[in-house]
């Protein structure tokens, strides 16, 4: 019971923090009109079925990058953006088990689903957000080979 209460408290605090850092700003020219602002960055979910490398290239073509989730606060925000399986911007393609964001920064915050990472196919190198249940606290990270998933999340630095 104490663990459940602690989980509820942490979830509530993260939610409050997320909403405190989300402001109503006008979307900059060149970004999708539906883009959401959070903590100095703009985010947009593209519901396009493609593999990780194509999604990475698409974000870069649009002037952004696949979303990076460096901490619990950003995770609390990002997981509200969609209920679909989407690509995020990390890979262990260069060295198995050595997760790196597409910026080259080592991943130090993880939200793996139970049993992950397991490299089941031997080619699982790309980070995706999945939802195992209908409740958002069941959204976790998984990684798979670069097969198409439902979509991807791009992020852009704030354009002042």
Question: Explain this structure to me?
Answer:
The protein has 160 residues and is α+β, with helices and mostly antiparallel strands. The protein has a single domain, classed as Roll (Mannose-Binding Protein A, Chain A). It is 23% helix and 24% strand. Strands 1, 2, 3, 4, 5, 6, 7 and 8 form an 8-stranded mixed sheet that branches. Helix 1 (2-21) crosses helix 3 (72-78). The radius of gyration is 16 Å and the shape is globular.
How many domains in all? 1
Rg, rounded, reads 16 Å
* Coarse morphology: globular
Number of strands: 8
- Which CATH C-level class is it? Alpha Beta
SSE sequence, one letter per element? HEEHEHEEEEE
Question: How much helix, percentage-wise, in residues?
Answer: 10-25%
CATH topology: Mannose-Binding Protein A, Chain A
CATH architecture: Roll
Strand percentage? 15-25%
**Secondary structural class:** alpha+beta
Largest sheet: number of strands, sense, barrel closure: 8 strands, mixed
Unreliable stretches covering 5 or more consecutive residues: 3-22
The CATH homologous superfamily = Mannose-Binding Protein A, subunit A
User: What's the rounded overall pLDDT mean?
Assistant: 81
- Number of helices in the DSSP assignment: 3
Span between termini = 46 Å
